[in-house]
Design goal:
5-stranded parallel sheet, 7-stranded mixed sheet, 2 domains, about 400 residues, 12 helices, globular, alpha/beta, Rossmann fold
Length: about 400
């Protein structure tokens, strides 16, 4: 299903209308149980495996909230083929051992498709269970390419640029900034262990002079950062799921390696609640891998909508946009398949979506799928390097380097 420029314009217009409607209603936040709205047909059950209490909760709940809002917006406008979407939600705590039981439970509740909003290690474990259950699934915020690679990848899809693209962008950034040696500070979660394996393998452009690890619930990283300082890197890259670990890491780095260039994953940029916990000015100069670009009109329309729903102070993240797009993509696939009840048709319909104009990334960024392409990102322009300002808030694109957009 090719998405034309006209469709892009209609999507932007639709989001703008939704934002205006939300302003009149004055609603705040997304309910755990979106209502059926004006749709009156038999509900279409969609399952969501959402880590709301484990190590992935800091980002999973952000996307989960916007997924609920997207479902509610669709229901308010008549549903899908006249039928409302209805979410059923379970929590695997990003624990791979809990995943099979969670997915089985969602299936038993009638789910026709799934959102896997959890840690990468947990989503990896989901693949074989999806095959057993014949359930198509989207991992809205997944970034590890192995999630959609064989084996058992026939039914799983992801949107965002992977760590392979991240590695290329970091290398471009390091070259532009004349950085040749880096130090790594990482947490001990299984999600980041899997991410590091892929990301760091693609960064042969620099020499990693030291790697230090801390517990995700650490209260002190001084020793690790002292050892990084002794290794004398040109810059430090922090890889973590975010949250308290990332704040502690950036606070300590700002104090002990003042003036040393710092880079991070998307986590810190997509977790506004963490910015408030950082010491004054501790995030200034930190560059993170972002996906929210103000030049993308679809992003702007989504920002307007979410601010109307969540308040003017709400900071929209890539997790919001990827959650929103996942719901819209599933809606398209259900419409294309003529309904949700035949998993084979639904899966084939998902594979037929091409040129979908994403609400994240640069203005021309699109998502496309096929039988052999379950990673939606069309090129590296779903990424932007963003720099923090002195107020501990992102101030805009990093002027030294931005990934080229070729699509």
């Amino acid at each position: 299903m090719a998405i034309t420029r006209g469709a892009t314009a209609r999507l932007v217009a639709s989001l703008a209308v939704v934002a205006l409607a939300a302003a009149g209603c004055g609603g705040k936040g997304g309910s755990d149980k979106p209502t059926d709205g004006t749709a009156k047909g038999q509900p279409i059950i969609i399952g969501m495996d959402e880590d709301s209490t484990g190590p992935g909760a800091s980002y999973s709940t952000i996307a989960g909230k916007t997924i609920r809002l997207a479902v509610q917006e669709i229901n308010d406008k008549g549903g899908v083929l006249g039928r409302p979407l209805r979410l059923v939600v379970e929590n695997d705590e990003s624990d791979p051992t809990k995943v099979p039981a969670v997915l089985q439970k969602l299936h038993s509740q009638g789910a026709k498709a799934l959102f896997l909003q959890s840690g990468s290690a947990a989503v990896m474990q989901a693949k074989s269970t999806l095959t057993q259950l014949s359930l198509p699934a989207i991992a809205p915020t997944g970034v590890t390419a192995t999630l959609v690679e064989p084996p058992n990848n026939e039914l799983i899809y992801m949107l965002a640029n992977t760590t392979k693209d991240w590695a290329q962008v970091y290398c471009g950034a390091f070259k532009a900034a004349n950085i040749n040696k880096i130090g790594i500070l990482t947490d001990d979660t299984t999600t980041i262990a899997a991410l590091n394996k892929s990301l760091l393998a693609g960064m042969s452009c620099v020499t990693i002079v030291a790697t230090e690890k801390g517990a995700a619930n650490a209260s002190d990283l001084s020793a690790q950062i002292a050892r990084l300082k002794n290794a004398n890197p040109d810059a430090v890259l922090v890889t973590s799921v975010g949250g308290a670990f990332e704040v502690l890491a950036q606070n300590t780095l700002a104090a002990q390696l003042k003036g040393k260039p710092r880079f991070s994953l998307a986590s810190i940029g997509n977790q506004p609640s963490s910015w408030k916990l950082a010491n004054p000015g501790a995030l200034e100069g930190l560059v993170f891998m972002g996906s929210i670009n103000p030049e993308n009109l679809r992003t702007k329309a989504l920002v307007d909508f979410l601010k109307q729903k969540n308040g003017d102070s709400y900071q929209v993240t890539a997790y919001d946009a990827q959650g929103w797009d996942s719901v819209q993509l599933l809606k398209l696939a259900i419409e294309k398949a003529g309904g949700p009840d035949d998993p084979k048709k639904l899966n084939e319909a998902m594979q037929s979506i091409t040129g979908y104009p994403a609400t994240f990334g640069q203005a021309s960024f699109t998502l496309s799928f096929s039988a052999s392409k379950h990673l939606g990102a069309d090129g590296a322009c779903g990424l932007s390097l963003i720099e923090f300002g002195a107020d501990n808030k992102p101030k805009g694109p990093w002027v030294t380097f931005q990934p080229p957009c070729s699509n």
